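Support reply, case 0932

Customer input (verbatim):
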Amino acid sequence: MRVLGIDPGLTRCGIGVVDSTAPQKLQMVGVGVIKTDPEAPLEYRLLELEKELIIWIKEYKPDVIAIERVFSQLNVRTAMATGQAAGVALLLAAKNSIPVGIHTPSEVKAAVTGSGRADKKQVAQMVKRLLKLKEMPKPVDSTDALALAICHHWRGVGNARLANAKKKATKKR
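Our regenerated output:
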């Protein structure tokens, strides 16, 4: 199964593609960050994000897209921008009949490190170790996207359920 992990953000949106090659064996296929100009109008930033996500979806053909659930303690502006970026990813998943898994930050941390309270550095170290990478991808948004993909492989929808969801989505079109 191929999972496209998306750590949504309007200024920096982390992207990571992870394949499962065997039970408990994962391999990074692609990683990156989509950046938009903070000075550009919102609608053009969302359009740029859409264009770049389409490129990733076409190139990597994911079986599922894992997106981080929008979470904000106090910063409403950040939550809004993150929610708008997540909305673009959700829309593209639906347009391409790709099932979606949504995971909370603590769920991702727990899946990757064993602790839902792990910090970003611990998550990055475990992503590096689990994917057998020589160095950590940077910026941290890309590492977070890989962590989302790993989380979905381990905690997401099973292959049979994924196949059924994909069939249903395709029939509706």
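We compared this against your earlier run and they match. Two observations from our side: The chain has six helices and five strands. The beta strands are 2-7, 12-22, 25-35, 64-68, 100-103. Please reopen the case if you see a mismatch on your end.
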